[in-house]
Design brief:
Blueprint lengths: L2 H24 L1 H8 L2 H22 L2 H11 L3 H25 L1 H7 L4 H16 L1 H9 L3 H23 L6 H4 L9 H22 L8 H36 L1 H11 L3 H21 L5 H25 L1 H8 L12 H17 L1 H5 L3 H26 L1 H26 L6 H21 L4 H28 L1
Length: 475
């Protein structure tokens, strides 16, 4: 099996590990939007924005650091044990701080005090499983990884249905929890699932002797802290719009915007699945003679598949949308979908390009690039939400991720030049964007016209890439 075939195989398995659970979880959007008013869905969104912020702070870039040094260090057990001791200790300390100063922190973050304890508990548990999951990935155990992810989401989905669904709900189960707001059931389900997965991965936390190596710890921290800052900037880029909208437009509008934003999940899932397989592969393959050529091929086909996803979701949005969102009150923000899809495709290309600063240990550049994106997100949203409403949020996301992609491209060509096929990549990206925007905005989501555009794009790709595809498959 060739290197590329192994990469695609692992990516498919990791893809299933991420896509299948997230897709199953995404089906809950229909349940949530059916049961919750727009304002309730907005509360749900804001809860997970804060959770994402806490997760980045509590992991402080350690997951990527672990990949980097586990791959290059001979004493792999020391890397594993040092990482585990580090994250267990800091999680415990952060937990004490978050609970002791509960009232002040919940007020500052605009989190209902009834939800705060659930939020902190979920975050602490999810942080504890980061290194065990990273260990499964870096040691090439995608099936075990996928199984645990699937179990996690199945518990969440089943509990959501039992606690929220009018048709399938269980009154006896609801009676176990004293809640005043039905959105709290979502968080309770998440907590139970997270706790169960922690129990499942405990054996991996005790697979090695607990030895804390100060030298390795310093390397992990120095490498990881810029990634943490970049992660915080990413949380801003991805979530600030949904945090600011309630202040400018109200919870009702934010609920609609957040729900329609979810329709870009197909692109998000593709990117996450790719990253799960690609990140350990890029590190493990970096010493190979043909590493750069391999990275170039991967980016080209990533762009092709991502562009196809952009076109397909945009063209068939009226077929897909009723499956996930039926209530009319949530559809007023539907026009953001093509823009958000394209923004996330740019983000995916950025993640591909970012391999240059991870392999050259220049992670501070990733931090700088992300901070530029965050500055654009903050400035554009604050300036234009009062003028353009929720559409400003979509434009800000596209502008931030597009510029981050271009900056990373320019710096990568200087510090770690990879022979990317920029001509083809640019052509595919521009053609896909033109097709999607024409189909949605100019031809008013006409499925027939959009299908013709889609077929033309597929035919063009097959004709242009036929020789390369045959060569890759024959290896």
């Amino acid at each position: 099996m060739s290197v590329l075939q192994k990469f695609f195989k692992d990516t498919v398995i990791y893809g299933l590990a991420i896509v299948l659970p997230r897709l199953i979880n995404f089906l809950l959007v229909r349940l949530h939007t059916d049961v919750l008013p727009n304002e309730g869905y907005s509360e749900n969104t804001e809860f997970y924005i804060v959770a994402a912020f806490f997760n980045v702070v509590l992991t402080y870039g350690l997951e990527t650091s672990f990949f980097r040094f586990f791959s290059k260090q001979q004493e792999k057990d020391k890397v594993l044990s040092t990482s585990l001791i580090s994250i267990i200790t800091t999680t415990f300390v952060f937990g004490i701080v978050l609970f002791v100063f509960r009232d002040a922190i919940s007020k500052t973050l605009r989190i209902n005090t009834d939800f705060y304890n659930l939020l902190v508990s979920i975050t602490l548990i999810d942080t504890m499983v980061v290194i065990p999951f990273a260990y499964l990935r870096v040691t090439g155990r995608p099936i075990k990884f996928a199984l645990l992810k699937l179990i996690n989401v199945l518990i969440i989905v089943v509990l959501n249905i039992l606690l929220l669904s009018i048709t399938y709900g269980s009154e006896s189960l609801r009676s176990l929890f004293n809640v005043s707001n039905p959105v709290e059931y979502i968080f309770i389900a998440n907590l139970i699932a997270s706790g169960f997965i922690l129990l499942m991965v405990l054996p991996y936390m005790f697979k090695t002797k607990f030895i804390f190596d100060t030298s390795i710890f310093k390397q992990l921290i120095n490498y990881g802290l810029p990634i943490m800052v970049a992660g915080l900037a990413f949380v801003i880029n991805e979530n600030l719009d949904k945090w600011l909208l309630p202040s400018y437009e109200g919870e009702y509008i934010n609920g609609a915007y957040s729900a329609c934003y979810k329709l870009a999940v197909f692109m998000t899932l593709f990117i996450q699945a790719f990253r799960m397989g690609a990140e350990p592969f890029f590190f493990n393959h970096s010493e190979k003679a043909n590493a750069k050529e391999t990275y170039a091929i991967i980016l080209k086909y990533f762009t092709i598949v991502g562009t196809l996803g952009l076109i397909i979701v945009t063209v068939y949005i009226d077929v897909l949308r009723p499956i996930f969102i039926k209530k009319e009150s949530y559809l007023l923000a539907l026009d953001i979908v093509p823009i958000v899809l394209l923004a996330n495709l740019c983000l995916g290309i950025y993640h591909n390009l970012s391999i240059w600063y991870k392999l050259t240990d220049k992670t501070r550049y990733g931090m700088y690039i992300s901070l530029v994106g965050a500055a654009i997100t903050i400035g554009f949203n604050i300036t234009f939400i009062p003028k353009l409403g929720f559409m400003a949020c979509a434009y800000a996301t596209l502008l931030a991720y597009g510029l981050m992609m271009l900056i990373s491209l320019g710096l990568g060509r200087k510090y770690y030049p990879v022979p990317y096929d920029f001509k083809r990549i640019t052509m595919y990206l521009l053609c896909g964007t033109l097709i999607s925007f024409l189909s949605y905005y100019q031809f008013d989501r006409d499925i027939l016209i959009g299908t013709v555009f889609l077929c033309a794009f597929v035919i063009a790709v097959v004709l242009l890439e036929k020789k390369d595809l045959k060569r890759i498959l024959k290896k």
